[in-house]
Amino acid sequence: MGLTRICKQIFFSVLILTLGSGILTAQKKADFVIVIDAGHGGKDIGARGVVENEKDITLDVALKFGQLIEKNYKDVQVIYTRKTDVFLELWERARIANKNHANLFVSIHCNSAGNKSAYGSETYVMGLRRMEENLEVSKRENSVILLEDNQERYQKFDPNDEEAVIAFEIMHSAYLDQSIKYAGYVENEFTRSGRSSRGVKQNIFHVLRENASPAVLVELGFISNHDEGTYLSTEKGKQERAESLFQAFKKYKQEYDEKDGRVVVEEKPVEVERPVAGLTYKIQILVSKNKYAPSAKQLNGLTDVEVVQAGDLYKYYYGNTSLVSERDQLLNYAIKKGFKDAFVVEFVNNEKLIGNQNYRIQFLASDKKYRDRDGKFGGLKDVLRIKQGKTHFYYYGSTKTYEDAQKELNYVKSRGFRNAFIVVFDGKKLLE
Questions:
Q1: Are residues 233 and 351 in the same domain?
Q2: What percent of the chain is modeled with pLDDT above 70?
Q3: How would residue 258 be classed by pLDDT, with cut points 50, 70 and 90?
Q4: 304 and 377 in one domain?
């Protein structure tokens, strides 16, 4: 191996870092710059999700993450690589970080796999360790290069070239520990929020490779998985992911300040919004005489929509919260999805229906007449059957509060009746 060649590679690697990042000691000690990169965008949609595509999810999470930092840290400058649906080449994203002397670079992505059961978050840092294991992820995230005009600007890296490996490791060793630290915080926070984590990993990503700063690439989850893809398409899922990234940043920033000997100004504590006592908010998006399936085009891609039949009308509700801020976010999102007449409905917790009125769960409709012993009810007992015309409708349970009805609904769905919904009765007759 040529020692002179290695020395030259090391010299130019260090020179690139120095020129890219500026003279590190010249940074103002009061400033911390974080560059938040929403992966993909414009003509590059990224991975296709079961509900929403990668480029849209990453942008929403990036903006929410940045807003949390801006609200709670006056000494941190937040820079976004993109704030709208535009296409950026990979080298541009790194250039933005280097030009602004970033202290941390966070690139946000969503995962996808042919195996629809694949599930969980991953956070990557630059490195060679277990590279083959993570090859599919790097191929997908680097494939955006095929959409770029000047693909020759990306130098090929040969992991079998011993000299290239030495130069590569020296170039990125200065920031590896810090990158791993933040990546670990991110995955810990995802786990704390009740989600599944696949851990911190290493690989070569072009969006990280040219960065002269601690840098991570976060895969929020697999949007090819029905459950995780649906979760990441909701306002709740995006907000929770953004809050996990923010909590990880708080820990990273605190250690950064302490290590750097800064005078830590106590930040204004994050205001914790309290739920409105006794109320639950839902967004009514639609009233119709028709019963729509969850995947029906009339629901415009909204997920977790609740249906309640009262008389001959079906009411469709989106969201469920006791927080005013989240209520407003849900309403705005429903309007954004095309429901211009959507409005907020207040449900009084544990309020009982009057008189003989009660909630039941419709779980089956058939032209055949079934009985309990026929084994068609998935183990549900005391089923009420009502015939209308030539159709037999089957109902389970009888509760007085909406909260209990929701519990019954979840139980019925767990027995295999995914299209079940809530119906209001008057005694044992449908409410007219």
A1: no
A2: 78
A3: confident
A4: yes
